Amino acid sequence: MAILPLAVTIVLASRGAGTRVVGTRVAGQVAAVGMLVSAYLAWVPQDPADRPLVAAFSLVVLAATAAVAVARLRLQAADSRAARLPWLATLTTLALIAAIFGLYVQNQAPAQAAGHAHHRSSLESSAAGRPSIAVASLTGLHQGKPDVRFTLVAAHGKIRLSSGAQIDALTFNGASPGPTLRVRQGQLVEVTLVNTDVAEGVTVHWHGVDVPNAEDGVPGLTQEAVRPGGRHVYRFVPNPAPATRTYDLVMDNGSAFTNGTFSWANTVNGASGAAIATLMVDRGDTVRMRFTNRGIIDHPMHLHGHRIRVLSRNDAPVTGSPWWTHTLNVAPGESFEITFTADNPGIWMDHCHNFEHAAEGMLWHLAYTGVIGPSPARHDAE
After folding, report:
1. Burial bucket for residue 114 (CB in 10 Å: 0-12, 13-18, 19+)
2. Distance of alpha carbon 320 from its chain centroid, rounded?
3. Cα four-point dihedral sign 185, 187, 188, 194
4. What is the distance between the alpha carbons of residues 371 and 126, in angstroms, rounded to a whole number?
5. Are 217 and 205 contacting, i.e. CB atoms less than 8 angstroms apart?
6. With left for phi above 0 and alpha for psi between -120 and 50, is residue 361 left, alpha or beta?
7. What pTM was estimated for this model as a whole?
8. What would the mean pLDDT of 251-263 be, rounded to a whole number?
9. Is residue 94 within 8 Å of residue 334, measured between CB atoms?
10. Is the pLDDT of residue 166 over 80?
11. Residue 6: which H helix or E strand, with range?
12. Which helix (H) or strand (E) holds 154?
């Protein structure tokens, strides 16, 4: 976008004055806009499938720049008052506005498509005679006496650091970190979570333990957040999971609309937050994923509800004992191929475990066909 007009500018400038001066000025202005377009394309991640459209749009912008530059030079030669109008500045401003609007549309379209696809899958499931499954029904064993009981009380408190300084903190049972919960494999565990005064609400997500979907502890997805004065009971049996679909997930950095604002963001396949398409699976699928980090920051990737097995790093197969994990750190330039068995129905969150990155939109969902999420809670006007 910038090199060819710039090369024309240099060649024309080296050949002297005359009519070539006009060509030099036009080519120079096209090269300047081409540099802006190139910077935008380098800064904003683009979907590879949209490259022909992006290239066509870019060429239209350069052609419009050339047309305006030629018209402006002719108006100047005719000593027209219209030549003094800020044509190029106006064109550049309109191009930037169009680029920002295009980015907004680009980030909204996948989210709408994913929503429509999820809606269609639910309708198709019902039409085929297969009943829908509510996340709330995918609970642990709620019958029988638990083998082990624990209570976790979330509250604001004071903790003392190793430096001796005392700071405000969020605590479980008055400590941070909270207590260690020790159980035996195969036992029925019951954990009662109590929220004393944490206004934002509290849930518990269990790392290293594959639990039923409704026990996963993701507010707004698998349960409502526990508000101050409330409680929630988790029940599950901690059994290790046994060690087709393929998904490529490319982590990158670029500008995107996140949390309602246009900002620098960490993206997945060129999208952020709700615009990242939901990954759909059927129960029993063997799923392969490839995580590729083309950004400049580490991304520890975490998949809820499933234990993943690492197959390769940078296309080199792993050796030795099988590498099982729940969270996999992917450094800049690295690529990991992983696999897992889709044997835990639900709607699960996948995300970067750097919570700043997740808050900026590096999170998406893995959903089983036929599983529907909870209905949004109704809030009466106060």
Report:
1. buried
2. 33
3. negative
4. 11
5. yes
6. left
7. 0.53
8. 76
9. no
10. yes
11. helix 3-14
12. strand 148-160
Q: Looking up tokens 């639900």, which residue turns up?
A: 346
Q: Among residues of the chain, what percentage have pLDDT more than 90?
A: 37
pLDDT on residue 382: 39
Q: What is the C-alpha separation between 112 and 277, in angstroms, rounded?
A: 9
Q: Are 247 and 289 within 8 A, CB to CB? A: yes
Residue 101 binned pLDDT confidence (cut-offs 50, 70, 90): confident
117 vs 125: CA distance, rounded Å: 12
Contact 266, 299 (CB under 8 A): yes
pLDDT tier at 55 (50, 70, 90 boundaries)? confident
pLDDT digits (tens, 9 = 90+) for 266-283: 889 888 888 888 999 999
Listed in sequence order, the DSSP H helices in 44-127 are 51-77, 87-127
pLDDT tops 70 at residue 381: no
Residues across the chain: 382
Query: Do 124 and 370 form a contact (C-beta atoms < 8 A)?
Result: no
Residue 99 in 3-state DSSP? helix
pLDDT tens, position by position, 312-362? 999 999 988 889 998 999 998 899 999 999 999 999 999 999 988 988 889
Cβ neighbourhood burial of 266 (10 Å; 0-12, 13-18, 19+): buried
Cα distance between residue 295 and residue 267, in whole Å: 9
Residue for token digits 């549309």?
A: 105
Cα–Cα distances (Å) from 189 to 145, 159, 204, 307, in that order, read 9, 29, 14, 20
Beta-carbon count within 10 A of 264 CB? 11
Name the residue with tokens 């683009």. Answer: 46
Give kind and range of the element (H or E) at residue 285.
Answer: none
Those residues whose C-beta lies under 8 Å from the C-beta of residue 168, and which sit 6 or more positions away, are: 156, 157, 158
